[in-house]
Amino acid sequence: MVSAVTSVLDRARRRAEQLMCDTVRIERMTGRVLVDAETGLSTPESTTVYEGPAKLQTYGGVAQQSSASATGDTSNLGGVVPVWTLRLDLPISVAGARSGDIAVVTGSRDTALAGARLRLINLQSEKTYATARRWNVQQIPDDDSSEESPPAMPVLRTRWTDEPDNSPSVLDVTQGGVQP
Predict the structure, then answer these.
(1) Cys staple from 105: which of 10, 73, 80, 116, with CB 3.0 to 4.6 Å?
(2) H or E element at residue 4
(3) Are 85 and 122 in contact (CB under 8 A)?
């Protein structure tokens, strides 16, 4: 009996993976910051947790009563609106992803999905006979809606001097470089 279940499960997992036509890279922030020596601009450091096939899909459409939006808009207060959830399916072999990791869609049959950034919220397929790792995800909005990238944020640095009172001397970092 066990071998029959295992055989069916293996087949189901292969079929689930055949539907994973998107490609994602899952990154985890390390907590460290890389600073460009020339410009002084900083970038958060991340490490790649997984890169490979995946499937994005919405589900739900469950009607829920609305409440005030994040901006405080109450124009549809009490109205019924459909709520859709976004899910990221990964192969069952991907066990290293964690809540808070960021998935970047690096390729998709749907060109509108390419480049999308998704925050992994929680794993929903913790079960004995899972055919895929199914993650509830939330899309991370683009920082800027224009074609240009937003300018990087400057970094302020403190340099200790040999002053008798040990007072810091602050360096002003600008787009053009470090100004003493």
Answers:
(1) 116
(2) helix 2-18
(3) no
Say if residues 94 and 103 touch (Cβ distance below 8 Å).
Answer: no
Q: Is the dihedral of CA 68, 69, 75, 81 positive or negative?
A: negative
Residue 25 has pLDDT above 60, yes or no: yes
Return the pLDDT at 147: 46
Structure tokens at 16: 């689930």
pLDDT digits (tens, 9 = 90+) for 92-137: 999 999 999 999 999 999 999 999 999 999 998 678 899 999 999 9
Domains of the chain by range and CATH?
7-142+152-179 (2.40.10.270)
User: Measured between alpha carbons, how far is residue 172 from residues 20, 41, 157, 158 in Å?
Assistant: 48, 12, 7, 9
Query: CA-CA distance, 54 to 59, in Å (whole number)?
Result: 16
Collapsing DSSP to helix, strand or coil, 8 comes out as helix
Amino acid identity for residue 84 in this structure: W
Q: How far apart are CA 5 and CA 129, in angstroms?
A: 9
Give the span between the Cα atoms of 100 and 96, in whole angstroms: 12
pLDDT in tens, 50-65: 999 999 998 876 666 6
Prediction pTM value: 0.67
* Close Cβ partners of 128 (under 8 Å, ≥ 6 residues apart): none
Can you give the length of the chain in residues?
180
